[in-house]
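Full entry
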Amino acid sequence: MQGFSNPPIRGLAWTLATILLSARQAIAHGDHDMDKIEDGEAMSVDPLDAILWIHILLMMLSFGIIFPTGMVLGIVRNRWHVPTQVLGTVIAVVAYFLGHMHKGRQFSKNVHASFANWLMLMLVVQVVFGIYLKFHITKGFHGKIRKVAVHGHGIVGKAMPVVAWVQMIFGGITALGFCRDDHLGQCLAHFIMGGAFIGYGILLTIMMLVGQAWLKRTGRSQEFFDSAVIAAWGCVNTFTEHRWGSAWVANDIQHTTMGVIWWCAGLAGVWLSRKRDGSPKRNFIPGFVILITGWGMSGHPQHLPVSTMVHTVFGYTLMAAGLSRIIEVAFVLRDQATISEDGDANSFQYIPPFLLYASGFLFMGATEEQMKLLSDAGITHVSYVLVLYSFAFLIFLFTNMLLHLYAVNSAPAVPPKDGEEQARAPRMNGHTRASDSRQVRDAEEFELEGLMSEDENPQTPSTLGKNHETRAN
């Protein structure tokens, strides 16, 4: 354990101990105005003050933008990975303390405050792994520890964007005092299912732009994985959407039958995802499940007119996503994985993922308490739907920007023509070439290779920062 006796290691340990001790003091300090909250209420009547707004904006900047960007830079082993993550860490730590120093609206015990500690613990673990790997201690017992740190750094780094997204959702819920008591069940249903639609849209975007090499290596079609998840989710919905032993109501029946058709259709989709010779085959099942789910949700009974309209738009959007997915597979791609020869997707292929993003935001924004807030404020469903579509465009844009950053920096060098300077050729759609297995391996190793020593990470043409290239646009 000789590495832990080094002055840098000791300094790191003292720094982390100081941060954790200060955090405990800040949390204790943040509870001094709890008497401003009336009995039975989730929060005080005070408005959000400037410090709390700064906390929100800085957390969104660090965990929503900087860390995901740094993650991609780590995957492609770009030399800007470490500076980007350091910047995000500094902003996140400052924002964390600001969240306990505000004087405005006070909150009772809530999931956002509890989950924040876990998120910050993940950040501390990630920083410790990163610093330890940068010391390049490989002799003796540290060789085994290094392997654990390498895998741990990758797993935590990949999980952080998802965990941060959940924490930001918790923050919005807490700020408005939603999802408590009798509203908890429907609130969970909306946010979990809405988040799943957004996640599915992101996965489709990834597979469309940079995941075809990995998909080909699995020997499965996209519909195999989609149908398997649909079947599993349908089984869960079948037995959880009704409180067994109590009376059935209209919504229970609709939710349960929706679960039944999901697992029935999912099993059919799994069966149709292979040809007779065992090779992968595309099919219409996932798109049809999305379409019929949208049809069912468009007629879901609601108590408020604005809620009825928002659910109707959500249903139509989801129906459009399913229909466009069927058209993409059957008529645009003609059952092929991709038709592009220049490394980009067909323009029509962007429609189904985007509509899934929009469907997710519409469903997440259609809870009972949100609809009552809109109704009381006199805001029409048209204005609200346009705002939610705007959010969908922003997430859609940011996802494509991150995938572009990955693609242009992970593509192999192209042999130059006579008199031309060597350049990189972006491969957005993952066509199978000699470098496909390497690209898949780079993605799986995440941001680890850039932290290894020179003997562990030999120079390759695609290693930015090692070959003096600076492209990271």
Summary: Residues 184-412 form one domain. The chain has a mean pLDDT of 81. The longest strand covers residues 413-414. The radius of gyration is 25 Å.
